[in-house]
Amino acid sequence: MTDFDPNDYEMAELGPAIKDVDDIAALHAILDKEKTGQNRPGAVALIESRIEKYEHEDEDVDVGSLNLDEMSTADVGNAVQSIEDVDELRTLLEREEAGQDRGGVTRLIQSRIDSVAGSEEGDGEDVELEDELPPEEKHPDLSHPTADKRHVRALQDGTYRDMWVYCETQAGELVDVSKEMLGKARELMDDYNDDYDADERVVAVLIGDDVSKHTDDVIAYGADVVVVHEDERLRRFQHTPFCEIFCDMARAGASHDGGEVTGGRDEDWRDYDKPRYVLFPATNNGRDLSALVQAELDSGLASDCSGLYIEDTVISNPVKTGVAGEKKTFERVLHMKRPDFSGFEYSTILCLDNPRREFHPQGGSVIPGSFEIPEPDSDREGDVVHHEATLDDDWFTISVTDHDQLDEGIDLTGHEVIVAVGRGIGANPTKGMELALDLADAFEDAEVGVSRGIVTGSYQFDGHVEQYTHEDRQIGETGQVVAPRLYIAVGISGAVQHKVGMDESETIVAINTDPEARIRDFSDYFVEGDLFEVLPRLTKALQDGELDLELAEAKAAGDDAAATDGGDQV
């Protein structure tokens, strides 16, 4: 690892690259190269954190010697990870509460207590839950006692049904991700009804001006019920009115006070307190609305999801079960998968009740392009419900008097071939882009895209290719999602964020000098070679109609060594 240079990696790629480095000397060398190179604060913190992990991994922590007043929150977090004794952890918690009483520190220690207690073989006794005093009495010294972590408005023994889908429109048109979510929701609820012998529905929500014209469409894409609110003031998205309308729809006008339902209206089409599940698009407006709505509905949110499924799950965390050492089965849980911030794996987010409160709706926002747009079924039938509610004039404090529409840029979807360029062109950025453009021109229907590393990097491009390096051509989680017949990845390592944007391509060809590049694992063909040499040969082969590539000598032993778990090596 002495030749490892962190400056060659984006932040999202650095974590995966050093995750297996456990030699402290090598890590210090990597840290020195970062500090003498780009010196990115995030990268320095990441490497230092890994060094600290191995420096303290085998040390026994003397609880009595810990001076919490001189330790940062991060220092305390690192220290408690090595403490396995619940009594010692509780002693630390008492010392912190009697001292600075920092909320972040107390939560870290309490979380470690819960983790250790849950991993021990318990005797089935109830976990001691914190008292039921209201925040004002629990924290008389605080100027904002309602900032207490515990929510007080959540329902108790509520009734939840159906999967709701917020169907966003832009410039009067239904956006594609709304259709994707409807198709996925239809699939999920069909399976759900079979698995649980239930009869729950997909409910589409349309809010805006002149959105009733989309009711037939959303039914055709999978909705059983469409709830519509129209008002000419809703022509453009605004946080407050859209949130208030959606939440009023979800709660049928009711209020939830102290766990009880008060008020509300009878609605013929439903007989429940709140939706069981709710999906939003992970667009700019959808991200805003999803956070506001889920907070107002007293639940949680998994943002930027790319995978969804529903099944039962077994949990042993005493915070959720209420009993140390015991496991509990939670039924009908929406599992929401999203790319991890580290960039090399996925996390699955669950929204589970605990003994004090219920978390519904279970909600998430969906990355556009994560699911296929279903074929619309014009013969499907569904109910249309017109939502009636008075909109407060105070909700409309901002009005748009004039606007300019920005150029939407290039649309990479729908092309037969995509040539995608990554950091591998760093030796000669302009030449690398020229070669990629030449290759794309050799096909009848091809476009050039780029990885996030090109967009955020400090590469210098000549003017005639610079236009191809902008964000509007970025492929990945925060860019476009494409599924061409042929995807050619040129000098791209294969971070999860990029994989999300191209994984559905019919055939993936990767060109990279690194035989261990992650993209190899999900490529159909892997060309180990210098792109500056390989691309001209591919372009000439396309132009001449002949391809003459020799199978590279395999580095591993055996006749079949050229074949890998991922793509075939050529």
TrEMBL record:
Molecular-function annotations in GO: electron transfer activity; flavin adenine dinucleotide binding
Database matches in SMART domains: ETF
Origin: domain of life: Archaea
PROSITE patterns attached to this UniProt entry: ETF_ALPHA
Annotated region described as Disordered, given as residue ranges: 111-146
InterPro entries named in the record: DHS-like_NAD/FAD-binding_dom, ETF_a/b_N, ETF_a/FixB, ETF_asu_C, ETF_asu_C_CS, Rossmann-like_a/b/a_fold
Domain Electron transfer flavoprotein alpha/beta-subunit N-terminal: 163-399
Keywords: Electron transport, FAD, Flavoprotein, Transport
Biased composition (Basic and acidic residues): 135-146
Biased composition (Acidic residues): 120-134
SUPFAM superfamilies: Adenine nucleotide alpha hydrolases-like, DHS-like NAD/FAD-binding domain
An individual GO BP term: fatty acid beta-oxidation using acyl-CoA dehydrogenase
Similarity comment: family membership: Belongs to the ETF alpha-subunit/FixB family.
PANTHER family, per database record: ELECTRON TRANSFER FLAVOPROTEIN ALPHA, ELECTRON TRANSFER FLAVOPROTEIN SUBUNIT ALPHA, MITOCHONDRIAL
Protein's name according to its UniProt entry: Electron transfer flavoprotein, alpha subunit
Organism: Halogranum rubrum
